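Teaching note: in complex prediction, the entire set of molecules is handled at once rather than each chain in isolation. The prompt given to students was simply: 'Predict the structure of this complex.' The entities are:
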Amino acid sequence: MNKVLMQGNKVIGEAAIRAGCRFYAGYPITPQNELPEYMAENLRKVAGGVFIQSESEIAAIHMVAGASAAGARSMTSSSSPGISLKQEGISSLAACELPAVIVNMMRGGPGLGNICPSQGDYFQATRGGGHGDYRTIVFGPATAQELADLTMDAFDLADEYRTPVMILADGMMGQMMEPVVFKAAKPRIYPESYVMKGAGTGKSKIIRGLILDPLDMEEHNWTLDRKYQVISGKETRHEQYKTEDAELILVAYGTGARIAKGAIKRLRETGLRIGLFRPITLWPFPTNELRDLAKKIENFLVFEMSTGQMVEDVRLALQGRARIGFHGRPGGVVPTPVELANVVLRKYDRKEGLTDYY
Amino acid sequence: MLVKTILCGFGGQGVLMMGYTLAHGAMNAGYHVTYLPSYGAEVRGGTANCTVAVSDDEIASPIASAPDHIVALNTPSLYTFQNRVAPGGALFLNSSIIAVEPSRRDVRVFKIPSSEMAEKLGNPRTANTVMMGAFLKITGLVPPDIYLRGMETVMGSKKKSVIEINRRAFAAGYEFLEKAE
Amino acid sequence: MKKVFGRPQSMKNNIFHYCAGCGHSIAHRLIAEVIDELGIRGITIGVPPAGCAVLAYNYFDIDMIEAQHGRGPAMATGIKRVLPDRVVFSYQGDGDLAAIGIAESFHAANRGENITVVFMNNAVYGMTGGQMAPTSIMGQKTTTSPMGRNNVLDGYPIKVSEIFSLLPGTAYIERCAVNSPANILKTRKAIRKAFQYQIDGHGFSLVEILSPCPTNWKMTPIESCRWIDEVMCKPFPLGVIKDLPAEAGDEQKKGDKRHAG
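The expected output is the structure of the full assembly:
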């Protein structure tokens, strides 16, 4: 497959179709409209491909649940306010152990906010978002290429663990075009036993999240938790950039990590030894890998396009073993690498500036 | 090397197409490239703009707070973006429409009567391609043959005659500044 | 000895948890009988609601997947679109369909999804303890309309079937009741017709069933059955509200006759 220049939202659509996604339901919201539009045009051309423009975000996620239960690789997408509406369904997917891929092209919030790129939904995505004891696997892609690769991986992991997987990107990732090469999709491996196709001549099946007996419900919670433990142990992904000799580590993800890389390149030119730790899975968070870095590095600076959400995971990972500073630009502001470089410079010169505030 | 260009004009002048073909050409020339359109409520006002970043290394931000070049097809776009261009950068103006002088004295200014040239060629909608000819002549960002091949891919679904007139528009823009200089 | 009455094959051998005099158990049985009769047990998928019938999958011996409150038609849409050759139905109460899930129901109907909705209307929220439903009738006393439903405060009972019948996407809508043997037989016929229409690919069908809730109506089962006839049927008259396939069939017959004549 050749390199193609493609917009982020469409990259996800194309990657999903190549990964065998056969059901998409969604509701228009900026800045991700090109994704449902792409599916409307292209998923319907694929044998068995279903696209539905649903009446609401809520309907979309429940259509996805139905399609998933019926055995189709299924996806929905939205942006922040719409993802809030989908939480009922995501909780239900987790409870019923149904695979699905949910895309969030984050925009400024809370409330209606604006349509500019933001990273304010980190808590919502990584803490479960809906009600009850559950987690969703969350990918934080930083390039169009990663949008393609991680979308495909998201379908594989959703099937492997029978759990909803979220792609957490932002309006800039969705709107931006970059060159992409689509990798070959892996064959789908999943246990067909749970799929609802009618009982045939055999025993009938039930898919449900309602478990009235508290002891049974507790057992279900622990079963889910054991699955999340396995995922935590096996599925963390991250990237380290120039950390070998670093005196200070920037921690950032997605668009934030792109800006951070740009800042690091500038700072390195002036001789400052700065590196980047970029979580690719936001849940499970690459806790151990980050903690290992703290064995030799004392200073960490978290940069997010929010008022500070991932910084809490960094604190949990480092457990007081290093100084942690924070720089945030919430509300849809995308700072320049120059601005971030200046912030780092200030903090780097006065190490005390990195002292955390907790 | 990192070169950022903002391309801007009225909706319908082919501003996004201009950026898309430029980004395509840069990709084919082996560069890292990002293309970022303005979107949402921003594009409802009738003006359009996009930013193309070209680099031989990974690109951090696709946004240009201080672009190296501005390609402006109308006057409001010039007003909006002329103060952002980096000192020593360049303004490429469609002088058929932009009658005002830019306020900047620390940048190079290239005036191309691209709308008139396009009209003379027989298709006023190729003014954007005329601009790209002039732009690539001066910046050398992408070799003309690679750009034109990219343009053909991008316009693949269009009629042969449309592609042909765009080739001529590109050549006209390319030669215009050659003559002027 | 010849067996004349037994448990339908599509029912599990479980004892209903429903209150004495409740209409759910009757409706369940009717659906199971129809599934048996049509021989579609192996290809039918049911979507039970939140509410009293949330445990319907304990009684139906068919594939069932629980929906969140009100989302049955969205979920049924997802299933049916992926598996168009299966028979898919949602089973919904009045709160589920006409309040929290009105959007999902309305739009599934409007898209003409080829599914069947069994709509249990008992004019009250049963599971949660007798609160006012969107179909509670004027003046009806519930725990959240203690002085009786008042249009100024509470609005009016929603006539789901009549409203849905206006949507071009709906094929068949009938309102029935399960308060007398005669009405029960009519209900069974309606359910059968709705499933048959789905099998024949006619599109969205809805059977509204007026169903007694003696516990929350604070009546005996017999009083409840009478209340349906005497009170509830006024805002919710029984009968076929829309039957496009039959109308088309009539046109066809007329046409044939004309042709023959």
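Point out the following to students. Chain B has six helices and six strands. Residues 17 and 163 of chain B are 13 Å apart (CA to CA).
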